[in-house]
UniProtKB/TrEMBL annotation:
One of its GO terms (molecular function) is methyltransferase activity. The keyword Transferase applies. PANTHER family: S-ADENOSYLMETHIONINE-DEPENDENT METHYLTRANSFERASE RELATED (PTHR14741), TRIMETHYLGUANOSINE SYNTHASE (PTHR14741:SF32). Residues 279-321 form the PG-1098 ferredoxin-like domain. The keyword Methyltransferase applies. GO terms for biological process: methylation. Keywords: Methyltransferase, Transferase. Residues 322-386 form the THUMP-like domain. Gene3D superfamilies: Methyltransferase PG1098, N-terminal domain, Vaccinia Virus protein VP39. This is Methyltransferase domain-containing protein.
């Protein structure tokens, strides 16, 4: 951490050059003897990322930013604030705290937060920023999280862990036991120090794989922002033996779409099927990630178009946690059948369909864009069909 970056004239330069071509700054000699051009660019790039991801940080004076790669790996303010709603009590240890976004969110809910990161620079950066953010109840410790746990005897209500999904060679890993720290092999240690754990994993982790690796899972939360799954949260409670509840959330600009279910419900639920009716429904990304393909149909009284298509249909319009489309026509998968539509361009989505979007565009001669949406899918009679639709925008 270069404290000279926090000088008033340097901070003013950073703020004044947020819209400047960073390559010009990088190739120019820095006007500040103790702050390099590279450091200036890193601050500018990271601050720009914070505009939407971390608005509280962006709107606070004298925030020190890490490089943009580190910032891209941290939680967004939206997901951090959501995590804070899941914990209770007075104390929490953020075992892999990094830039400290989650720690800051926890500090608004818990009396005492311990921010631990083995990167000494990140620890110092977080400590400085917490002062700027007036978060006086966060203790920053530069240490290995697991080693710290082994030595501490202080009572802890919660432990939060965001294991790194990169190995020693900086390659991405996808299974929990490959992440650092390895929460699977250290579960006994973790639960000996706190009765409640909150573990964050990436969106690519398979839920069934996670359930095989972890014990005492009480709830699984799948969090998406604007239909993009950002993280999966695992709530673990010591000695919990019941079936976990799965919750899905999709944050939109003005609304929050929520749905929850149990895997056992999904397994015993029977679906009803229909050819496309007046409306077609596409579940949001969090629901699709959860695997609630039959549960969502039952809950909203919808028909499935095919067992493997995960598209739904109804005669009457129903509010739904996902995208809704009004059906304008259903066609065979051929250029001839679409010719009378007079389509030049459309948005194409495939569900349970053998051809790629690129191949479909080439075959049908349709460019990208416009108001029409084409769902290329398979119907209940195993026919390849094209559903032509207009999207219905909803406040729900």
């Amino acid at each position: 951490m270069n404290s000279k970056i926090l000088a008033n004239d340097v901070q003013q330069f950073i703020n004044d050059n947020l819209n400047t071509d960073i390559h010009k700054i990088l190739l120019s000699k820095s006007r500040f003897p103790e702050v390099s051009s590279r450091e200036l660019v890193e601050q500018i790039e990271s601050k720009l990322k914070a505009i939407t991801k971390l608005p509280t940080w962006f709107n606070t004076d004298n925030i020190y930013y890490p490089n943009k790669l580190n910032l891209s790996q941290t939680s967004s303010e939206i997901t951090a604030n959501y995590k804070a709603t899941l914990v209770h009590g007075t104390s929490i240890i953020d075992l892999t705290a990094g830039f400290g976004v989650d720690s800051f969110a926890f500090s608004k809910k818990m009396k005492h937060v311990v921010h631990i990161d083995k990167n000494e620079d990140l620890s110092k950066i977080a400590q400085h920023n917490f002062k700027q953010l007036n978060a006086a109840n966060i203790e920053c410790i530069a240490a290995d999280g697991l080693e710290f746990l082994k030595k501490t005897n202080n009572p802890i209500d919660w432990i939060y862990i965001d294991p790194s999904r990169r190995d020693k060679d900086n390659k991405k890993v996808y299974y929990l036991f490959d992440c650092e720290p390895n929460v699977v092999s250290n579960m006994d240690l973790l639960l000996s120090k706190a009765s409640n754990l909150l573990i964050k994993t990436g969106p690519l982790l398979d839920l069934k794989s996670g359930l095989k690796e972890l014990i005492h899972v009480k709830e699984i939360h799948i969090v998406a922002i604007n239909n993009d799954v950002k993280e999966i949260l695992w709530l673990i409670e010591k000695d919990y033996k019941e079936e976990p509840l799965i919750k899905t959330l999709n944050y939109k600009a003005k609304t929050l779409q929520e749905f929850q279910f149990h895997l056992s419900e999904e397994q015993i639920t029977d679906s009803q099927y229909s050819k496309p009716l007046n409306y077609v429904y596409e579940p949001n990304a969090a629901i699709l990630k959860s695997g609630a393909f039959k549960s969502i149909a039952k809950n909203y009284n919808l028909f499935k178009i095919h067992a493997n298509s995960h598209l739904y249909t109804s005669k009457e319009l129903i509010p739904f946690p996902g995208r809704i489309f009004e059906v304008k026509g259903v066609y065979d998968y051929s250029k001839k059948s679409l010719k009378k539509e007079g389509l030049i361009k459309a948005n194409i989505t495939t569900r349970n369909f053998p051809d790629s979007v690129l191949k479909i565009r080439k075959k049908l001669g349709i460019k990208d864009g416009g108001e029409i949406y084409l769902f290329c899918t398979t119907d209940l009679e195993e026919n390849l069909i094209i559903i032509s639709c207009l999207q219905i925008f909803q406040d729900h």
